[in-house]
Specification:
The structure holds 2 protein chains of 2 kinds. By secondary structure, chain A is mainly alpha-helical. Chain A has a single domain (25-267), classed as MetI-like (MetI-like fold, Orthogonal Bundle), CATH 1.10.3720.10. Chain A has 10 helices and no strands. Chain A has helices at 5-23, 56-92, 94-109, 112-123, 127-153, 157-164, 169-205, 217-225, 233-260, 262-267. Chain A is elongated. Chain A starts with a helix and ends with a helix. Among the domains of chain B are: 107-174; 266-363 and 445-529, 3-Layer(aba) Sandwich (Rossmann fold); 371-444, no CATH class. Chain B has helices spanning 52-59, 85-91, 103-106, 113-124, 129-142, 148-152, 161-172, 191-208, 219-225, 243-248, 253-261, 325-332, 381-393, 403-412, 429-442, 459-476, 487-493, 511-516, 521-529, 535-543; strands at residues 8-21, 24-37, 41-45, 67-75, 78-79, 96-99, 179-183, 211-216, 228-233, 236-242, 280-292, 298-310, 314-318, 340-345, 348-352, 364-367, 447-451, 479-484, 496-501, 504-510. A 6-stranded mixed β-sheet of chain B has the order 6-7-8-3-9-10, with helices on both faces. A 6-stranded mixed β-sheet of chain B has the order 16-17-18-13-19-20, with helices on both faces. In chain B, β7, α8 and β8 form a beta-alpha-beta unit. Classes of the chains: A mainly alpha, B alpha/beta. The interface between A and B is medium-sized, with 20 and 28 residues. Chain B: It comes from Propylenella binzhouense. Chain B: Pfam families: ABC_tran, oligo_HPY. Chain B: Residues 12-259, 284-527 form the ABC transporter domain. Chain B: Keywords: ATP-binding, Cell inner membrane, Cell membrane, Membrane, Nucleotide-binding, Translocase, Transport.
């Protein structure tokens, strides 16, 4: 069953992020100079140790927790506000639509990484700042998806039927339209999680994400870079985690869409 | 008409068509055999899913890679199976042509009509550009496209559906094909236009001597055009024979069933007593509606409509596309804003001078044409019905919303309680429309707007749904605006008919009077255009034009 591969992988990652730090018998911050640069597959340290002798697996696991928490929170925030903006714009039309969607266009026109750098530089790196910045970055994407979908769905006949039977506006938007635009929104969400991990790691690499010594994948790549020629695995291992996580979540979208569709649910 | 002398153009033997659906093979057509002789029109009739269109498309290898076609397709002594696509390309448009249901989607929207026709001609002949253009003009005149010179340089969207179908026919006959496949070519057209297109096809056939394979679900059309008929069901032949035999003496039960389900104009006229309630439910006082046009110019959809609907009466609103009949229904239901006149419902002004703020009309419910689109695909049937009741209860607190009540209403429209937790896509078309009727009924309306509620359904389903609707109307006694393009249907259900044309009411009166003694020429044209499911009558009609 290939369609279950991606959800299983994604769940494995989420599980790893949640319970991983508990299973690895090492403190991600504990330094041990004697055991520095332990190679991959050492009996004590499965993924080796870094230049301070810290267990790489423990750091990856702790990093996964932070990366996932940031990415998912940012995505949920962006989804909530983006969908709200998009649906309001599409359903009300007129001046509200103009103001909201042009605002979204303005936000879209700002290069994401530059904006992130700017805000982090101004406010200082911290997890809440990171989440806020990422959410802000991804609101326009959700707004556009929700806007386009709502424009299409609001003209469908079951919405007319709801109007005729006297449905209040709130229940038309939330009860009738929202469930019918969720499939692409969920796909967008899974793409956004991937992007958020990418941008988060990027900021971490630049030292603007999670503050060291707290582990982050981007920071680990940056640290490992210094020992690239002698101990390439210090850079490659976190790199592999970043890349595979992003790939998994990017590809998950289509599966999510299918799972959301009642037609697919029955025909399984 | 000596059949023996005629050459057989197409001979199909044991045609079987399978489709690959996921990993399973689905058999669509099974061991079908038929012949078409020169100058003959064979109609393949069937309901949706009968395999009639698939059969037609298979003849030219148009089914795509998921289909497996086996058997024998013999066209003028050449077997087309297995497909030789090089050979088929030479055949298509040259010796065998095809016209489709939707001429709008069959033409390329970004090229001018004349250009597309000229291209087709140049693809098939050695003519120079100028010669091809000349030939194209000649063809447009031949299919009697009005003002062919102007239309030649226009884009598809600037032409009406009937005009586009004429262009498609011009393309199809450009190379004088031996066989024309017509896949529901008039289904999307108004009845007056349909009559003209059928006339044109008949004329071209006698002039060019081509054979026609006509795919349709409409027995009226069959009676009008077919020499021979093949009835299909679930991919198999039910019966075949000459049109006259089939209509007068159908051998199979299924054929009989189909024929009896066809709404016929004169069969039931006057069956319904004219109920003249004194109490007015809905009143339109010179209502006008203008829709914003593409370039700021308004389209006048309704122009000074005066209309009264009395309690408990069924009024049929009849007209062709663009007549404004659906707009009347939408205004009554509060979906469309008016810009002139007044709409009074149950004594309250709903729109126009003196109206309260909300356009929503409690007491009006609606049954839609496309039952599928009118149901939220993400809501189970029970939830859909409950939601409508809950909304309606905001202005009608006495309404019940319990599951028991919903199931009782479902039972009333013939839906089992087991469908309560189903999603719309798990229901058949007829069942979905029953849900639509249940929803309209459940809120105890004083007026139901039924907008072509049966036109998307197969003819046999159409009849049962219509009978059900009529029965419920009598039992519950709601007034009804029954919007339809089909006068036969109108005659079966209504006590009064209102005929609309281009946003105005041209004639209204008791159904019997409108059908037997129409005073307006448009009503008369409408009546004359309805093909009757009786080949003898239809032939007689044709020879003596009105």
């Amino acid at each position: 069953m290939r369609r279950y591969l991606l959800p299983v992988l994604a769940s494995a990652f989420v599980l790893f992020a949640i319970v991983g730090p508990l299973l690895v018998p090492h403190d991600p911050l504990a330094q041990n100079i004697v055991k520095r640069f332990a190679p991959l597959g050492s009996p004590e340290h499965l993924l080796g140790t870094d230049n301070f002798g810290r267990d790489v697996l423990a750091r990856i696991a702790a990093g996964a927790q932070v990366e996932l928490f940031t990415a998912v929170s940012a995505t949920l925030l962006a989804m909530t506000f983006g969908v709200l903006i998009g649906m309001t714009a599409a359903y009300s039309r007129g001046p509200t639509e103009g103001v909201l969607m042009r605002g979204v266009d303005v936000m879209l026109s700002i290069p994401p990484l530059i904006l992130a750098l700017l805000v982090v530089a101004a406010l200082g790196p911290s997890v809440p700042t990171l989440i806020g910045v990422l959410a802000l970055l991804f609101i326009p994407g959700f707004a556009r998806v929700a806007y386009g979908q709502t424009l299409e769905v609001r003209n469908r006949q079951f919405v007319e039927a709801a109007i005729i039977f006297g449905a209040p506006r709130r229940s038309i938007i939330l009860g009738q339209i929202l469930p019918n635009i969720m499939a692409p929104v969920l796909a967008q969400a899974s793409l956004t999680i991937a992007s958020a991990i990418l941008v988060g790691s990027g900021l971490g690499y630049l030292g603007l994400g999670i503050r060291p010594p707290a582990p982050s994948w981007g920071g680990m790549v940056a640290d490992g870079q210094r020992y690239m020629s002698s101990h390439p695995m210090l850079m490659i291992v976190p790199g592999i985690f970043v890349v595979s996580t992003i790939l998994i979540f990017s590809a998950l979208g289509d599966t999510l869409r299918a799972l959301w569709d009642p037609r697919e649910q029955r025909s399984r | 008409m000596s059949d023996a002398a005629r050459e057989t153009v197409l001979s199909v033997r044991d045609l079987s068509i399978d489709f690959l659906a996921g990993r399973t093979r689905k058999s669509i057509v099974r061991t079908l055999s038929f012949d078409i002789a020169q100058r003959e029109t064979l109609a393949i009739v069937g309901e949706s899913g009968s395999g009639k269109s698939v059969t037609a498309l298979s003849l030219l290898g148009l089914l795509g890679p998921r289909a497996t076609v086996s058997g024998e397709i013999d066209f003028l002594g050449r077997n087309l199976l297995p497909y030789d696509f090089h050979h088929l390309t030479k055949l298509r448009g040259n010796e065998v042509s095809i016209i489709f249901q939707e001429p709008m989607s069959a033409l390329n929207p970004v090229y001018k009509v004349g250009q597309q026709l000229t291209d087709v001609i140049r693809n098939h002949t050695q003519l120079s550009v100028d010669q091809a253009r000349e030939h194209a003009m000649e063809l447009l005149r031949k299919v009697r496209l009005p003002t062919p010179k102007t239309k030649f340089a226009q884009y598809p969207f600037e032409l009406s559906g009937g005009q586009l179908q004429r262009v498609m026919i011009a393309m199809a006959i450009a190379c004088r094909p031996r066989l024309l496949i017509a896949d529901e070519p008039t289904t999307a057209l108004d009845v007056t236009v349909q009559a003209q297109i059928l006339d044109l096809l008949r004329e071209l056939q006698s002039e060019m001597g081509m054979s026609i394979l006509f795919i349709t679900h409409d027995f009226g059309v069959v009676a009008d055009i077919a020499d021979r008929v093949l009835v299909m069901r679930n991919g198999e032949k039910v019966e075949s024979g000459t049109a006259v035999d089939l209509f007068t003496d159908p051998k199979e039960d299924y054929t009989r069933e189909l024929l009896s389900a066809v709404p016929s104009l004169d069969r039931r006229v006057g069956n319904r007593a004219v109920q003249t309630g004194t109490d007015t439910v809905l009143q339109f006082r010179s209502v006008g509606v203008t829709f914003a046009g593409r370039r700021g110019d308004g389209i006048r959809a309704l122009d000074g409509i005066d209309l009264s609907i009395h309690r408990g009466e069924v009024v049929a609103l009849v007209g062709e596309s663009g007549s404004g009949k659906s707009t009347v229904g939408n205004v009554a239901a509060g979906l469309v804003r008016i810009d002139g006149g007044q709409v009074v419902l149950d004594g309250t002004v709903r729109q126009g001078n003196g109206a309260d703020a909300s356009r929503h009309s409690p007491g009006v419910s609606m049954v839609f044409q496309d039952a599928n689109a009118s149901l939220n695909p993400r809501m189970r049937i029970g939830a859909t019905l409950r939601a409508a009741l809950k909304w309606a209860r905001r202005s009608k607190p006495e309404l019940e919303t319990s599951d028991e009540y919903i199931k009782r209403i479902m039972a009333e429209v013939g839906l089992g309680a087991d469908l309560f937790n189903r999603f719309p896509h798990e229901l058949s078309g007829g069942q979905k429309q029953r849900v639509g009727i249940a929803r309209a009924l459940s809120v105890k309306p004083s007026l139901v707007v039924a907008d072509e509620p049966t036109s998307a359904l197969d003819v046999s389903v159409q009849k049962t749904v219509l009978d059900l609707f009529g029965k419920l109307q009598r039992e519950h006694g709601f007034a009804c605006i029954f919007i339809t393009h089909d006068l036969s249907l109108a005659s079966n259900i209504s006590s009064r008919v209102v005929v609309m044309y281009r946003g105005r009411i041209v004639e209204q009166g008791p159904t019997r009077r409108i059908l037997t003694a129409p005073s307006d020429p448009y009503t008369r044209a409408l009546l004359d255009s309805i093909p009757q499911p009786d080949p003898v009558l239809q032939r007689a009609r044709r020879t003596q034009p009105a």
